[in-house]
From TrEMBL:
SUPFAM superfamilies xref list: P-loop containing nucleoside triphosphate hydrolases (SSF52540)
Cell compartments where the protein resides: Cytoplasm
Annotated ranges, domain ABC transporter: 252-597
Protein name: UvrABC system protein A
GO biological process: DNA repair
Ranges of biased composition (kind: Basic and acidic residues): 93-105
GO annotations of cellular component type: cytoplasm
Major localization listed first in the record, in broad terms: cytoplasm
Family: Belongs to the ABC transporter superfamily. UvrA family.
Keyword annotations of the record: ATP-binding, Cytoplasm, DNA damage, DNA excision, DNA repair, DNA-binding, Excision nuclease, Nucleotide-binding, Repeat
């Protein structure tokens, strides 16, 4: 109902405060000529520059001073009486701040102390590469990498020691420049007497570790064993380790001959977030990597502006999964992207955007249902003699239909117990023991397996079980080839990482018949992937390009950029310092560009 109503509503800034949220009285107080809303809207880099001279005691006499900034005794009494009459406090225990000028010695001392404390906190955030964020930036708009660095900055400021910090892939979504700042912050935590346990796929971070634990050798059922635990150099002797191959690669140079474009998709005048009238051209029939430091404007260009313009040109709306996450009546509408497509759309027939948003928000959504292979599996069970004799249809084998599912857990496989003031407790259903189905449905078997047994299979196991069923193997083969062979068919969507969700979406697309002339847009597809999985993913993406499609990825992995046909680097900095096209060229040319912060790291990969 809210979604339906929201189509007839328009959101706009409040006419009284103009979006600043505060009363006129609160906004009348200024510091350095800024009210608190304008102060909070400044990027942290600019805020630090504003506070630095004040913290040093270097004041400019732009503020009012002298008698005009103070109140006489009679005026103070009248102001206090007026405040008390309107329901306020007389504040008898504290002197009125208007007894002294704005730049009196005591007020300067207070401001210098506060500015110095603020600068110390801001400095940690800026060192971690977050200087482009403003203080009033809403947390739902931050990426997972930005949130993790914010938490890390909080710990750095706490100055604790003797603490064990556990970080799960802190370098995910970070440019190599930001990685250096992150590593410096981790060294500070270690030097303060703390221990750091870091889960990481970044090779440079592994080489810098004091102790390395390698788990494997494969994923899922093929993993779970500690292959090595010791100093990094010792891993070179462990032949079963897949990490060893990439960590100690003798010749890691990438030989890739860039393809010749069969046209160019040109856009111009793009305005969105920090992008200001940017022009860009993407080669058609090629693999393009868009690089740049975190916050430079890559996602604004590739994940927002480009798909919106292409979708509008194709005459279709752009589905956005974010709409499901927030109240449609309160959701702030994005301003339409500025700019236009000037060439190249005559050869683009279809748009596919593959992001890391969840494939479902409830445990009822899983790998089998999302890819569509579960529809075929249910038909196999419905076609068995036992099922036909009982007149069971394919719907009987769905855990979302009342006929076949367990009545106790209603097909969830578990029951939840709501606890007051505590998180809910989930327990396996005592009736079906997690199978999701009632006993009558489980009596039907296909090749000696019931429907619950099939959902419990991993993709690798299912490939052996359904080897003679090409209609199911089409989806299973792609899932296995893209490195998801360890996932269970019935694994709930809520248990999948962003990288796994993105690869499942990509696999769902890859199993369809390739018609060519499709534009694929991916935002950091290698996030959370081991280099071995990156190689598998790249083989699939290069196959899409070979089939006559165009692939554009936002990426920080230089091995991916080195294997691309065209590199577009956005920057040179983040936030206000970014938003411009630094270089657009083949990888070998882009690696020589002096103004690009990506060039030196791309040179290493090449």
């Amino acid at each position: 109902m809210k979604k339906r109503v929201s189509r007839y509503m328009v959101g706009s800034d409040c006419p009284s405060c103009h979006g600043k949220r505060l009363k006129k009285e609160a906004l009348s107080v200024t510091f350095a000529g800024l009210d608190i809303a304008a102060f909070s809207a400044l990027p942290m880099n600019r805020l630090a520059a504003l506070l630095a001279p004040i913290a040093r005691g270097e004041w400019t006499d732009h503020a009012s001073s002298g008698d005009e900034a103070t109140l006489t005794r009679s005026a103070r009494r009248a102001a206090t009486a007026q405040r008390v009459a309107s329901g306020g406090s007389a504040h008898k225990a504290s002197p009125d701040v208007r007894r002294t000028p704005n730049l009196s010695n005591e007020k300067r001392a207070a401001a210098e102390r506060i500015a110095a404390d603020l600068l110390e906190r801001l400095g940690t955030l800026i060192d971690l590469g977050l200087g482009y964020l403003s203080l009033d930036r809403a947390t739902p708009t931050l990426s997972s990498g930005e949130l993790q660095r914010l938490r890390l900055a909080t710990q750095l400021a706490s100055q604790l020691f003797g603490v064990v910090y556990v970080l799960d892939e802190p370098s995910a979504g970070l440019h190599h420049t930001d990685n250096e700042a992150l590593f410096a912050a981790l060294k500070r935590l270690k030097a303060a007497g703390n221990s750091l346990f870091v889960i990481e796929h970044d090779m440079q971070t592994m080489r810098r570790a004091d102790w390395l634990v390698d788990v494997g050798p494969a994923a899922g059922e093929g993993g779970g064993h500690v292959l090595y635990s010791g100093p990094p150099k010792g891993l070179a002797k462990i032949e079963a380790s897949q990490t060893r191959i990439h960590l100690f690669a003798q010749d890691s140079r990438i030989a890739h001959v860039p393809r010749t474009p069969r046209g160019w998709l040109a856009i111009e005048g793009i305005t969105r977030n920090n992008l200001n009238w940017i022009d860009a051209a993407f080669p058609l029939g090629c693999f393009t990597a868009v690089t740049g430091i975190s916050g430079s404007g890559k996602s604004s260009l590739v994940s927002q502006a480009l798909p919106e313009l292409v979708a509008a040109h194709l005459g279709r709306s752009l589905d956005d999964a974010d709409d499901e996450e927030q109240d449609p009546l309160l959701a702030k509408k994005e301003a339409p992207v500025g700019g236009r497509i000037v060439a190249g759309m005559e050869t683009v027939k279809r748009l596919v955007r593959v992001d890391q948003k969840p494939i479902g928000r409830t445990p009822r959504s899983n790998l089998a249902t999302y890819t569509g292979l579960f529809d075929h599996v249910r038909k196999f069970f419905a076609d068995t003699p036992a099922a036909r004799k009982r007149r069971y249809s394919a719907g009987r084998f769905s855990f979302n239909v009342a006929q076949g599912r367990c009545p106790t857990c209603e097909g969830e496989g578990f029951v939840s117990v709501e606890l007051l003031f505590l998180p809910s407790v989930y327990s396996e259903c005592s009736t079906c023991h997690g199978s999701r189905y009632n006993p009558q449905t489980l009596e039907i078997t296909w090749h000696d397996k019931n429907i619950a047994d099939v959902l419990a299979m991993s993709v690798d196991s299912a490939c052996e079980f359904f080897a003679d069923e090409p209609i199911v193997m089409r989806a299973l083969t792609v899932l296995r080839d893209i490195g998801l062979g360890y996932l269970r068919l019935g694994q709930p969507a809520t248990e999948l990482s962003g990288g796994e969700a993105q690869r499942i979406k990509l696999a769902t697309e890859l199993q369809r018949a390739h018609r060519g002339d499709t534009l694929y847009i991916l935002d950091e597809p290698t996030t959370g992937l081991h280099p071995a999985d990156v190689d598998r993913l790249m083989a699939q993406l290069q196959g899409l390009v070979d089939a006559g499609n165009t692939v554009v990825v936002v990426e920080h992995d230089m091995r991916v950029a080195a294997q691309s046909d065209w590199v577009i680097d956005i920057g040179p900095g983040a936030g206000e310092d970014g938003g411009t096209l630094v270089v657009a060229a083949t990888p070998d040319v882009a690696a020589k560009h002096r103004a690009s912060r990506t060039a030196s790291y791309l040179r290493e990969a090449l």
